[in-house]
Every structure is written in structure tokens, then in C-alpha cells.
Design brief:
The protein has 308 residues and is mostly helical. The chain has one domain (11-304). The chain has 15 helices and no strands. Belongs to the EamA transporter family. Keywords: Cell membrane, Membrane, Transmembrane, Transmembrane helix. Its main location: membrane.
Length: 308
């Protein structure tokens, strides 16, 4: 991907801001009683609306988007909508810790997608990390089955499928943002995703009005905190940093979200969940340490996990 220079703010600070912001996402979803498809729709519509004053100046760039790029933008938006629908829905069934730990597999799914579509090879060492991470996922999901909690297992599966969806969205974004600004890309994708969710709500007869002020406040918080200061910030960072560095934000979200869930929602982890989470995090750290483009030297391990 084409980089456009040095970020005006140190990347580490941007990562910490983004991780803190996205860690609140699952908390807001848990606090809301509205259907997750409605939460996600308003989250994206409100974000797209707030971006309008900045996107307005990019009208010439938008006019130059080709039909093929428009199709890929819509596909990226559809996959983002599917991700929100599945991942936010998973929080109705499973814990914040389990859901966000599974979501942390995003860079692994990105690697698998890059291999399938772009024939991008990875090292054997990185695959060892993948194996360790999936061992942790099996422990998490196995713990749900052993405990007899079918709901938790369903939630874990939804999070896993949602992670695969967002990986496709990320791969499309890496390709498209080499040809357009992150602002235009993000606005077009957020709007496309919101429209997809709007169609979904109408098709299923899910009400989109009549919610109390508390719910509208949560919709707004979802738009401002995890979307603008999370997803939008990470999209912008991809102009200055490699996708592997930005993907390391997934290491911080399970930690931040689990701590917030413990403090605000009084959620705890049992021994099996803790063991599974430990293997997931160790596997991801290993994977991100060795998953580097062949043309770039692997960075020191201390540069890979500063946000933890």
C-alpha cells in the first residue's frame, strides 16, 4: 500500500487512542436494548453525517471514482455491515472477553485472505502463531460447550464469522486506499454499510424509530467513540503505517474491553476462558512478530506490543 509520509502524531499515541475508543464499543452495545442492526445502522449513518463537512471538499475525488471501484466500495461496506451484525449480535449471547478475543483473530483472517486472493505467502514461524491462537479459540469455545451454554457457543461462532467478514473488508480497504484518500474511502464504506443495514431492518420489519433518549445517546456514542476515534482513525493511520502495525490494535482491544466489562458490567472469566485468552494473545503476538512482508525486516518485539 502507498504511504503518504509521516503521521503528524506519533503512531503509538494514535494506537492508544484508537484502542481505548474501540474497547468501549462492546460496552455500549451491552448497555443498549435496541436491536443490534438498529444500533449499527445509526452508528454508521451518524458517523457518515458527521464526516460530511470534510468529505464535501473531496467532491472532485468522489466524481473520479470508477464503476469498478464503486462496486468494490459497496462490497467493502456490505462486509462491514455483516461484521457489525454478527459481532454486535454475538454480545447478546457471549461475554465481552470471549467475543473480543475471537475478534482479535482479524489479522490471521487477513493473512488467509491475502494468501487466497493475492498468493501472499507467510513464514512457517507465523503459522506457528496461528496454530497457538486457534488453540486458544478452541479452548474458549470448548469451555462454552462443556459448561452446557449453547448461547455462549452461538455467540462465539457469530463473533468468528464476523471476524472473517471484517477481514474481507480490511483487504478491500488496503487495495482501495492505494487509489483514494482514507476519508473518501471511509465515508463511502460507512454509508454503504448503513444502507445495507437499513434494507435489512426494513426487510425484517425491525422498527427504526420510537426509541427512548437513552438509546439515541448510545447510538451517538457508538458513532463518536469507537467509530470516529477507532475505525476511522485506524483507516487514516493506514496512510502512514503498515497494515501489520495497525492490525496490532487487535491485541489491545480484548484487554481493554475485558477490563471495562469487569469494571462496568461485572463480567468475569473462568479458568478455561482465561487459558484460552492467554493462548490467543500469545499466538497473536507470535504471529504479528513474524508476519512481515519479505521486503521488510521484522521489527523488534518491543515495537510490536507497546500498547499492552
Amino acid at each position: 500500500m502507498i504511504k503518504s509520509g509521516k503521521a503528524p502524531i506519533p503512531v503509538l499515541i494514535l494506537l492508544l487512542i484508537g484502542i481505548t475508543a474501540i474497547s468501549f464499543s462492546s460496552i455500549f452495545v451491552k448497555w443498549s436494548e435496541a436491536p443490534v442492526s438498529v444500533q449499527a445502522m445509526y452508528r454508521l449513518f451518524m458517523t457518515a453525517f458527521m464526516m460530511l463537512p470534510f468529505v464535501w471538499r473531496k467532491a472532485p475525488e468522489i466524481n473520479q471514482i470508477t464503476p469498478k471501484q464503486l462496486g468494490l466500495l459497496f462490497l467493502s461496506g456490505f462486509m462491514l455491515a455483516l461484521h457489525f451484525l454478527l459481532w454486535m449480535g454475538s454480545l447478546r449471547y457471549t461475554s465481552v472477553a470471549s467475543s473480543t478475543l475471537i475478534l482479535a483473530l482479524e489479522p490471521v483472517f487477513v493473512m488467509l485472505g491475502a494468501y487466497i486472493w493475492f498468493k501472499e505467502r507467510t513464514s512457517l514461524s507465523a503459522l506457528v502463531g496461528v496454530a497457538i491462537a486457534f488453540m486458544g479459540i478452541f479452548l474458549l469455545m470448548g469451555a462454552s460447550r462443556v459448561s452446557g451454554s449453547d448461547a455462549s457457543f452461538t455467540g462465539d461462532m457469530m463473533s468468528l464469522l464476523g471476524t472473517a467478514a471484517v477481514a474481507v473488508h480490511m483487504l478491500l480497504g488496503q487495495s482501495l486506499m492505494s487509489r483514494m484518500s482514507s476519508l473518501v474511502y471511509s465515508w463511502m464504506v460507512f454509508l454503504s454499510a448503513a444502507m445495507c443495514l437499513g434494507v435489512y431492518n426494513m426487510a425484517l420489519g425491525i422498527p427504526v424509530t420510537g426509541y427512548p433518549a437513552k438509546e439515541w445517546g448510545i447510538f451517538l456514542l457508538l458513532a463518536i467513540v469507537p467509530t470516529v476515534f477507532g475505525h476511522l482513525l485506524f483507516n487514516w493511520m493506514m496512510r502512514f503505517s503498515s497494515a501489520s502495525v495497525v492490525s496490532m490494535s487487535v491485541l489491545g482491544e480484548p484487554v481493554g474491553a475485558s477490563l471495562l466489562a469487569f469494571i462496568l458490567l461485572h463480567e468475569t472469566m473462568n479458568a478455561w476462558q482465561f487459558a484460552g485468552g492467554f493462548f490467543v494473545m500469545c499466538g497473536l503476538i507470535w504471529f504479528l512478530r513474524y508476519k512481515q512482508p519479505h521486503s521488510e525486516p521484522a521489527p523488534p518485539i518491543r515495537e510490536s506490543v507497546p500498547q499492552l
